[in-house]
Amino acid sequence: MTQAVEPAEYDVVVIGAGPVGENVADRARAAGLSAAIVESELIGGECSYWACMPSKALLRPVVARADARRVPGLAGAVQGPLDTAAVLAHRDTYASHWKDDGQAAWLEGVGVDIHRGHGRLTGPKAVTVTAPDGTERRLTARHAVAVCTGSRAVVPDLPGIDGARPWTSREATSAKEVPRRLVVVGGGVVGVEMATVWGALGAEITMLVRGKGLLPRMEPFAGELVAEALTDAEADIRTGVSVTSVQRSAPDGPVTVALDNGEQIEADEILFATGRAPRTDDLGLETVGLEPGSWFTVDDSCQVEGVPWLYAVGDVNHRALLTHQGKYQARIAGAAIAARAQGVPNLETGRWGAHAATADHAAVPQVVFTDPEAASVGLTLAEAEQAGHRVRAVDYDLASVAGSGLYADGYRGRARMIVDLDREILLGVTFVGPGIGELLHSATVAVAGEVPLDRLWHAVPAYPTISEIWLRLLETYRDGGS
Ligand SMILES: Cc1cc2nc3c(=O)[nH]c(=O)nc-3n(C[C@H](O)[C@H](O)[C@H](O)COP(=O)(O)OP(=O)(O)OC[C@H]3O[C@@H](n4cnc5c(N)ncnc54)[C@H](O)[C@@H]3O)c2cc1C
Ligand SMILES: NC(=O)c1ccc[n+]([C@@H]2O[C@H](COP(=O)([O-])OP(=O)(O)OC[C@H]3O[C@@H](n4cnc5c(N)ncnc54)[C@H](O)[C@@H]3O)[C@@H](O)[C@H]2O)c1
What we know:
FAD/NAD(P)-binding domain
């Protein structure tokens, strides 16, 4: 029989303690509101244990070695294999050994009450938490409930999938051994980053991509340059193919992957990097008139359409599936919840206002930590044209910048900026090349700040850094080039 524990009331109840839920709770506390957070797994969420942190800890040695191999005088010292045990140990450290004491202590330190268990909405402003031991506790929110339950990997429902023990991003970021042969299905961000890691650690990589190329959400040259480098690293990239079935006959045996072109591939592991689904299927959405299993629809303050006391923040609203963007939304939603709780009459919900996550539409930055790195902010050329802007794309070969040549021998890379011809501001910027990840924020400032191009001329990049790409792009635009 289910035991009930004393109910509790808070100003704000947050479901899901990933990076986003933690920040909503923190912002509520900072505004003087009481806050509780409900977590069914680990405080810190996907990002800390099976996504950003472990994947970037795995990628860092891979990319650093690749960079070092392009520096004369150093290359000879780094020709050997990676120390797999040390790389995996570094990853384990960055995943905090899958323990959440540190993050739990931080939340408690800012005065947020943690309730361990599965949270479900049970009516307006009501959340029931089922603890691991089966006891139930009802939490009531005076002002707002924020759903920050994130997303999970989607594995297509293929014949044989259940017995095939496929990897998702969780296994790909936490595996303890390097498979001899790894098939990666999907050419998005998870696919290319994980192919880069496990290939560098010694796995034979086959990528199966149903579209035309890799990284389809970025400018086409991003996927092309990353594919070129993966192919140089001996990955076998097959485009325009779909998996029709997978079969693992023995638990320790190989997996056989059948393709729609009639071919079969044998591998030791298969990773499905085929996108995400919202964690909303078992959340009690039906009790408040919403559809279980769907992404939330929210306004720019992250308030759920038609349910004013409910907020959905981070991956779960499908605006931008990135930690930094979810945390930005958390800061905005936290401020909006506090302002509404305090009875502030008019919130700043206009474009770029304090209570509007405007950057979600105009300036979402992303770095793909492959070799070469691919980074973008704002719109691609295709997106800008589709949105009806009058634009010019300005391209430049990153290898022609003095700083790039110094950074790496045989530097390969490219940059593009999308100029709004009516306003003479930037709508989007993409860089692809070694060492460009840290350059992205300059582009984010230019795009989010809507900095006029004639003012950008006065932002002088230091010589000889890769940042001189800015000068070259501006000169190319001034001289009428594209
Ligand atoms: C392999 C990989 C690498 C990535 N790398 C990057 C990167 O480099 N940079 C970047 O910006 N983004 C990256 N991302 C994306 C990033 O991980 C997500 O955008 C981010 O984790 C979203 O945060 P969130 O708080 O919305 O959700 P999550 O991090 O998914 O957290 C949700 C939390 O809610 C809990 N929860 C769910 N349902 C319930 C419930 N009913 N009751 C109680 N608790 C519940 C979960 O257990 C979880 O702890 C990566 C993703 C993947 C898969
Ligand atoms: N460095 C980073 O910022 C980083 C790293 C990893 C993940 N992420 C985030 O995590 C999210 C999830 O990444 P992802 O790579 O899983 O998703 P994604 O949506 O980026 O890519 C999934 C790819 O799989 C393909 N696909 C879907 N179903 C398929 C099927 N049945 N067969 C073959 N291909 C199929 C899609 O066409 C798409 O190209 C992304 O939105 C990304 O923003 C970010």
